[in-house]
What we know:
Layout: E1 12-14, H1 19-27, H2 31-37, H3 51-62, H4 79-85, H5 93-103, H6 108-123, E2 131-133, E3 136-145, E4 148-149, E5 159-160, E6 166-168, E7 171-175, E8 180-185, H7 197-211, E9 216-220, H8 227-239, H9 251-259, E10 270-275, H10 283-293, E11 295-300, E12 303-315, E13 320-334, E14 340-353, H11 359-367, H12 372-382, H13 393-417, H14 434-442, E15 446-451, E16 454-458, H15 466-475
Parallel strand pairs: 3-9, 9-10
Antiparallel strand pairs: 1-15, 2-3, 3-7, 4-6, 5-6, 7-8, 10-14, 11-12, 12-13, 13-14, 15-16
Helix pairs in contact: 1-4, 2-3, 3-13, 5-13, 6-13, 13-14
Amino acid sequence: MKKLVIEATKERIVAQSGLAIVGNLLSLTNLASRLNAYRLPDISRNPVCSNGDVAKSYIGLLCQGKSDYDNIETFREDAFFALALDIQRVPSSPTLRQRLDQAALTEKWKAILHEESLNLIRNTNAEISPVYAKDKPYIPVDLDVSPFDNSKTKKEGVERTYKGCDGYAPMFGYIGQEGYCLHVEMRKGNDHCQKGTPNFIKETIQSARRLTDQPLLFRLDSGNDSRDNLIIFLEEHASFVIKRNPRKEKAEDWLHIAQNNLIIFLEEHASFVIKRNPRKEKAEDWLHIAQKYGICCEEREGKKVYLGSIPETIQLKDQIRTIRKVFKVIERTISRDGQIFLIPEYEFETYWTDLEVPPHVVISLYHDHGTCEQFHSEIKSELDLERLPSVKYETNGLVLHFGVFAYNLLRLIGQESLKKQDAPLKKKATRRRIRTVIQNMITLASKLVYQGRQWKLKVTATNKWLPTFARLYDAFY
């Protein structure tokens, strides 16, 4: 006799109840109305599926960790999918593909997705946690390139990346310890990580200023060790100390701001920690510098660590600025297991920074930059975006912007779930992984019922995530 009997039912069983929360968050944006107001050249004025419906449908897929166009076919007759995301008509797979191809021919959709993503973070009052240097808070902004492996495909723009695989090499900008994505730029696989980075930095600074007026701390790795980047950060500082032209501003308006104790950071700037590219520098030369200018600490027998900094001048257009070159040099004469070396071993790492803090603090702040590798993995694997769905380069760039929107949306849900201890996960955490949000919140099972002129989601009372789910739905309503 069979252990289980499989039967069909006409009851509405929902396997993605968390899309109700996604729909609430989308309603806090002007994404659909702005996309609907923009007419694509080859699309009729009143298409059967509006631009807003296409966009919300694809975001609904991405929030489940599905990026392939064909996945939309599962939800074309799903009443809950359309109800939760406020979609009038769910597009077919060909419609979804063709509309994104058309939208990719213009930069307008990317700009709208980028702006509405930032507006969503700001309008929900999302907490953006700082890091501290000498008790002064800085909002970290991490910029990094992450290769997307698209081997064995014939997609446009797929080239050999520095990781040794064929694919793309987009650049990302994240803000705060939570890792909200500020900015993304699609790049071909063989593009050098510094190509286009100065302009990317300027755009990221503008995006960051829309979310916070606290001091920013940019962190970049050695691939972006370029004088052009240093000049941008130093000139950014200069731009904030120029006296503003009041134009038509009134003194009474500024008095009102002052009376409400609002702090205007007119003289704050974007600080930076950039790991230097050693190029042809030798460890022995840095040992000589460290012995002269650094502080030595013997961590164990046969291992000496030197920490310190030396000044460096940078010529700007109309002035000379001084920044610091922080170094860490390690000299080993005995191995960890007691083996004495015939020739000492040397290691060194150096950093550019304008922070006036001890060298070990600068190095610690940079090492925390490695957390953005986790943010990359969440976008690539947990949103299923590493192997992008289109053969067209521009369309994949648009898809990546959709992915960043979905990533920020899921990050908001995860961070809100941490505000109260009503989740069954009792391990202390400061950030929920996107995978955890999808598994426990988005794919929550329920029964959809129309009762008393109202749609209801009935979740089993024994589900430990029910209190958190109900709280999140109300929080973003």
